[in-house]
Specification:
CATH superfamily of one domain: Glycoside hydrolase/deacetylase
Helix content: 25-40%
Number of helices: 8
Number of strands: 7
CATH topology of one domain: TIM Barrel
Radius of gyration: 49 Å
Structural class: alpha/beta
Distance between the termini: 163 Å
CATH architecture of one domain: Alpha-Beta Barrel
Length: about 325
């Protein structure tokens, strides 16, 4: 019996493979891919999982790690691994956010808190004396005459100076007594004027060495120097037997500390009750008017014979002295 030879059939595996390749080609055509599988036409085996961008690359390529995204804390992972470097082609960064600054305890501060410059180390406690207690101090600040009644005390600050001689001449004409609150360094520079003041029967007042202001803000040691040294300069300029009865703080800057210093030196703190602000040179009429309006019996008038041009003070005094006499005022010294 004649048998017809049959061609061996294609193994199923080969047909399945060709069908799979054909299907892959069709899919690739649809997707626009240029290849599917390897050059031999075989498909690559499917990967077991998508690798993270920081995973180890195949052998033969450099490892790449990922840097923290812009705006993150930039803190390394808890395992202590080093911060990663920036990838070659990063994605578009988000809007920058200020990094958080760790607090002294290690806890991050609130997100986006404004960053401030680190503050310097706190200084050690100051060795300067504690501020003096609040006013009042060792005693009242004098603002009245010694005798009271219809009396007036004329006081002149900041000398001795160029106007002191003229003022002494005017006072002599009206037999008026006055108190001169002298700057220590001015007294040391003009001892003849200090002696003339004393020879005319007037009295002296300490007005500090340099007239620093605000006087009440001076440290204790500085206040001691300004008061004590000025008194010594005045005494030395005046000669043996010179007495300084009062201290007047520059600008009226009295406090408990400088009042106690003053009392410890045997002086009283001298203020005033009438202030025409002649030092500012407001004009002769203004000086005269202010004194006439503010003065009450027993008052203490503040004027200046030093510290600048005192022509207005001298001119105002020429009007005030006869007016005071006409008003029945007697000239006195401040209370002590």
């Amino acid at each position: 019996m004649h048998r017809t030879s049959r061609r061996p059939s294609t193994p199923p595996t080969s047909r399945s493979r060709r069908r799979l390749i054909a299907g892959c080609v069709a899919v690739a055509a649809v997707l626009g891919l240029t290849a599917c599988g390897t050059a031999s036409g075989a498909l690559q085996p499917p990967s077991t999982a998508a690798q993270p961008s920081g995973a180890t690359q195949p052998s033969g390529t450099a490892a790449t790690t990922i840097a923290p995204a812009p705006g993150s804390d930039g803190i390394p992972p808890a395992t202590g691994s080093a911060p990663a470097t920036t990838p070659a082609t990063p994605s578009a960064p988000a809007a920058p956010v200020k990094p958080r600054t760790p607090s002294p305890t290690g806890t991050p501060s609130p997100e986006n808190a404004p960053s401030a410059p680190a503050s310097p180390t706190a200084p050690a406690a100051s060795s300067s004396p504690a501020p003096p207690p609040a006013h009042p101090g060792a005693g009242p600040v004098i603002g009245s005459t010694a005798s009271g009644g219809r009396t007036v005390a004329l006081t002149f600050d900041d000398g001795p100076g160029p106007a002191t001689g003229q003022i002494l001449d005017l006072l002599a004409q009206y037999h008026a007594k006055a108190t001169f609150c002298q700057i220590g360094q001015n007294a040391a520079a003009n001892p003849a004027l200090v002696k003339r003041v004393l020879a005319a029967g007037h009295r002296l007042c300490d007005h500090s060495v340099h007239h620093p202001q605000p006087f009440a803000k001076l440290p204790h040691d500085k206040a001691v120097y300004e008061i004590t040294a000025a008194r010594d300069m005045i005494v030395q300029a005046g000669g043996p037997g010179t007495e300084v009865h009062w201290f007047r703080a520059p600008g009226g800057g009295f406090n408990a500390d400088n009042e106690q210093i003053t009392a410890g030196l045997g002086m009283a703190s001298l203020g005033w009750s009438v202030d025409p602000r002649d030092w500012s040179r407001p004009g002769v009429p203004a000086i005269v008017s202010t004194v006439q309006k503010q003065l009450k019996p027993g008052g203490v008038i503040l004027l200046h014979d030093g510290g600048g041009d005192r022509g207005q003070t001298v001119a105002a005094l020429k009007q005030l002295l006869p007016w005071l006499v006409a008003q029945g005022y007697a000239f006195d010294f401040p209370a002590a």
